[in-house]
Structures are given as C-alpha cells and as structure tokens.
Amino acid sequence: MPDHVHILARPLEKSKDQWYSLSAILHSVKRDSARAINRLRNRRGPLWQPESFDRIVRDEEEFLEKANYILGNALRAGLVEDGWLYDGFWCEGMQGMPSAG
Q1: I need a surface site. Which of 25, 28, 47, 60 has the fewest CB within 10 A?
Q2: Is residue 13 classed as helix, strand or coil in its secondary structure?
C-alpha cells in the first residue's frame, strides 16, 4: 500500500525453542527500510510512525483471515483487480501460491 505496510511472517528460531520477538523483528524492518527509503528520497530523519500493531497468529484459520485481508487491501484501494498481482505484495515461495503464475 502506498501509505502503510502489512507483514505476515514467521519468526526464525534463535536457538532451540527460542524465537526472535515480534518487537525485535519490527524494529529491524522499520530501521532498515527507513534507511533505504530515505536514501532513495535523499532525505534524513524518522519515516515510520512510532506505534505499530503486532499480533501472534494462533492457527491456520486466523492466518488465512489475515492473509486475505492483506491481499484485499490493494483491491479495496482500487490499485489492482487481483491482490496477488499488486507490485507491493511479496510472498516467499510465490510460485506455489494461487494466481502467482
């Protein structure tokens, strides 16, 4: 989306039964993406709002609900007719996903 980001991710395991925290992941994503975007825009300073909403997805039903919501964003905004084809959407292993070609 042009004005916000959705991420649906599975944290990596740091060590046996120890996972990276959502806050640490989000901090890294915001830091690294802000640097890259600011570099492209030839700007400095804060880019992202300080707050965020994170949630642990508990089951497949909730995962599918969140995934469908994310894919529907570009449709609701009138940017594309197929959420899978939105150029702001990325999914690792997309070759196995519906409508991904």
Answers
A1: 60
A2: strand
Q: Who's near 99: CB < 8 A, 6+ residues apart?
A: 82, 84, 85
CA nearest neighbour of 83 among 94, 68, 101, 61: 68
Residues 6+ apart with CB under 8 A from 55: none
- Which amino acid, one-letter code, is at 85? L
Please report the DSSP string for 74-86 in residue order. HHHTTS-SSGGG-
CB atoms within 10 A of CB 71: 20
What does the domain layout of the chain look like in residue ranges?
A: 1-55, 57-101
Radius of gyration in angstroms for the set of CA atoms belonging to the chain, rounded to a whole number: 15
* 36-77 pLDDT tens trace: 999 999 999 989 988 888 888 899 899 889 888 988 988 898
| Confidence grade of residue 101 (pLDDT, cut at 50, 70, 90) | very low
CA–CA gap between residue 15 and residue 20 (Å, rounded): 9
